Amino acid sequence: MPEHAMSEEEEPSVVQVSTQYAVSLLEKLHGFYERSVLTDVVLVAEGAEFPCHRTVLAASSAYFRAMFTSGLSESKQSHVSLQGVEAATLRPIVQYAYTGQLQLDEYNVEQLFETASFLQVEEVVHQCCAYLLKKVSAESCLHLLAFADAYSCLELKQVARRMVEHRFPALCRQEQFLQLQPQLLMEVLGSDNLNVEKEETVREAAMLWLEYSPSSRSQYLSAVLGHIRIDALSEVTQRAWFQGLPPNDKSVVVQGLYKSMPRFFKPRLGMTKEEMLVFMEVPSGEGPPGPMALASQVSICYSPQAGKVYKLSSLPAGLRKLGVLVTPDNDVYVAGGTTPTRNSAGRVSLSPLGLRSAVNSLYWLDAQQNTWVSRAGMVQTRIQPSLVNCCGQLYAIGGDVNDLESHRRSVERYDVRRDEWTTVAPAPFGWQWCATVEARGRIYAMAHDCTFSYDPAADSWVEVAPRRSSRCFASAVSLLQYIYYIGGLHTSGGHCGSLRMPSGTLDSSSIMVEAYNLDTDVWEERASIPARRFSDPCVRAFVLLGSLCVFLRESHLAERPRYAIYRYDSITDRWELLQQIHERVLWDLGRDFKCTVAKLYPSCLTETPWKPPPPTALNPYGELDSFEDYDDEEGIVIPPD
């Protein structure tokens, strides 16, 4: 046998088909389509003709595969008329069959989804669904819920429904809600995850839907009311509602409410939410020592009412130095920041920023799932941008990268519905850091002794009254007709004309508080917070239970630091102790932690193993100790493992 002959035991080698060959073959088929070469079938939609190849159509569409291989007369027709299919929608689907490329936008995605579903082009259906998933928002969720339900897109339906449940109080009066199909409406009304604080909201939504078309919907009265949890309604509501019903409806209503009895005592998710302090960029204390340990951080929540600590989902990709925002609708966002820089081998490598590089990412917290959802990235990368919500839009102001003045002055606006960022008028200042708040439909940015106001309608900035002190790294809060500027480092010679931030010093005598009166355009000094108890300027201001509060790190001589929440009484111009928190409850938070307040669901979070003893009672209406009455008692015992 010749040496090159193959023995019986040997198997032929398999040559892997290259990607280049596959692409080349597809390009040639597309060229044949463009020139109508060797085409053997013509698709007709709205009178427009598309000469195609049966094999290509059959390979990309289960609909055409069944048609051309059925052996029926249709399989041999030279022209196939597609009733109800628009030519403008068929064209990109045919192009996708020959190129694998699909251009999607908000104007064509739903039509492409419908046609691709009809023609069973699964790849196009999948891409359309993925596109729509990113577009689910408070403005679009009702429409997308009905759309996904009609076309049995389960993943899109699930995500859209979660958004409807989250924004239920605001959505239940909208026209799109009142037009929901009966079965879909009842799915929503029966959900345990409705973000409602009172069952009355669900009852009103049900009645609005029934009254939208009484003649056609009376048959659903009993079924719809079966999803209302009667025991959660107040006695006054129950009595007034039942007495106001027409006699013929009373028995039907009773039947419907009887059906809901198994769920009488189960509260909706929104009834369980609590105002919590959210701490981000907190050192975890885990991992190896050294510089890399700095990347080990966690996000936690603290419930002042329950005195419990919960673990929030970790920030994506080890994000640090980011901007944090909680909107009036209780949506939590983080944007910008830095992530570890890695080389082509996946290992951390050095960069001009040390071991980290700036990013432009934006994430939204899905509170029900306790997960961070990626949204469209900002136009520019930003480190510690100031985030603020104004007129339903998000704004990212400043942030520092490579000491660029133009970068620090830039401002972007995020359209939640479109999931898009656009640049707006740049700020007249080039600060590396600023505190921002929204008040009366305007944005106020503060640093040093200056305050600037941005009008979204005019897309312009103006300077307002200067403050009496020059400070940076302070906390700012808007409440009623005032903007409060609290704490921070005193700066010397730091007028708004300075592009670089001057060195700062901590005033050891007090933590200063100033209030800007929106009615009079005047800054006023308010009672300072004595600083003798505080080891550093870790002062975080927020609104808790409707009152201005601050979170502080206290220092007690030989004792380890502990934390406290103080509330401001605007009538007496006095700061009062609201709650003490030992460091064993909230471990060392470091110096760079972010702190904000959000209403979260304890059942959706993971409680930490450490269970502290009951803290000082949180009573926003009762007597509260002042600084002079501060009790230095201690005696917390860690329970055994």
Automatic annotation (TrEMBL):
<keyword id="KW-0677">Repeat</keyword>
<dbReference type="Pfam" id="PF07707">
    <property type="entry name" value="BACK"/>
</dbReference>
<dbReference type="Pfam" id="PF00651">
    <property type="entry name" value="BTB"/>
</dbReference>
<keyword id="KW-0880">Kelch repeat</keyword>
<dbReference type="InterPro" id="IPR015915">
    <property type="entry name" value="Kelch-typ_b-propeller"/>
</dbReference>
<dbReference type="InterPro" id="IPR006652">
    <property type="entry name" value="Kelch_1"/>
</dbReference>
<dbReference type="InterPro" id="IPR011333">
    <property type="entry name" value="SKP1/BTB/POZ_sf"/>
</dbReference>
<dbReference type="InterPro" id="IPR011705">
    <property type="entry name" value="BACK"/>
</dbReference>
<dbReference type="InterPro" id="IPR000210">
    <property type="entry name" value="BTB/POZ_dom"/>
</dbReference>
<dbReference type="InterPro" id="IPR017096">
    <property type="entry name" value="BTB-kelch_protein"/>
</dbReference>
<dbReference type="Pfam" id="PF01344">
    <property type="entry name" value="Kelch_1"/>
</dbReference>
<protein>
    <submittedName>
        <fullName>Kelch repeat and BTB (POZ) domain containing 2</fullName>
    </submittedName>
</protein>
<feature type="domain" description="BTB">
    <location>
        <begin position="39"/>
        <end position="106"/>
    </location>
</feature>
